Amino acid sequence: MPMLQDDKERKDFQGLGIVQPLLDRITELGFVKPTPIQFKAIPIATGGEDVVGIAQTGSGKTLSFAIPMIQDVGASKKMGLVLLPTRELAVQVEEVFKKIAGPFGLRTSILIGGTNINPQIRELRNKPHIIVATPGRLIDHVEQKNISLANVGMLVLDEADRMLDMGFAPQLNRILSFMSKDRQTMLFSATMPEKIAAIAQQYMRSPLRIEVARPGTTAAKIEQEVFIVHKDDKMDLLERLLNEHDGSVLVFSRTKHGAKKIALKIRQMGHSADELHSNRSQNQRQKALKGFENGKFRVMVATDIAARGIDVEHLALVINFDLPSQTDDYTHRIGRTGRAGREGKAISFASPEEKGDIGHIQQLINIVLPIKSSSGEKMESVTTSTGRQVTTLSGAKRKGGGGGGGRGSSRQGGGNARRGPSNYRRSGRGR
Question: What is the pTM for the complete model shown?
Answer without folding.
Answer: 0.65
